[in-house]
Amino acid sequence: MLCLLHNYVPGGSLRSIQSSLLSVPMHKLNFDTRSFHVALPTVWNSLPADIRACIFYGSFIHQLKSFILIMLFSK
């Protein structure tokens, strides 16, 4: 099975190694940015660290919904 998502591994010992980021693959065309393996890591990495660090599904969904609502209605 082909795995499309990979954890971000920095070149040296950086603090970002513990931030549960995904690596965004290189892409040449603007059309590629809408593909799953590019768009998902980009969206995941843009989430706040406390949401990415959720262990339980229920708490993740609750925090994600709250984050989205705050982003929608703060404009």
Spans with pLDDT under 50 lasting ≥5 residues? none
- Judging from the principal axes of the Cα atoms, what is the shape? globular
H/E series, N to C?
Answer: HHH
Structural class: mainly alpha
Return Rg in Å.
Answer: 14 Å
Cα separation of the termini: 42 Å
Helix segment count?
3
Count of domains? 1
For the biggest sheet, the summary is: none
Q: Please identify the oligomeric state.
A: single chain
Quick check: average pLDDT? 78
Instruction: Please count the beta strands (DSSP E, at least 2 residues each).
Output: 0
- In which range does the helix fraction lie? 40-55%
Relative strand content: under 5%
Structure, explained:
- By secondary structure, the chain is an all-alpha fold.
- It has one domain.
- It has three helices and no strands.
- The chain has helices spanning 36-46, 49-52, 57-73.
- The longest helix has 17 residues, at 57-73.
Short synopsis of the structure:
This protein is mostly helical.
Topology:
Blueprint: H1 36-46, H2 49-52, H3 57-73
Task: Give keywords.
mainly alpha, 75 residues, 43% helix
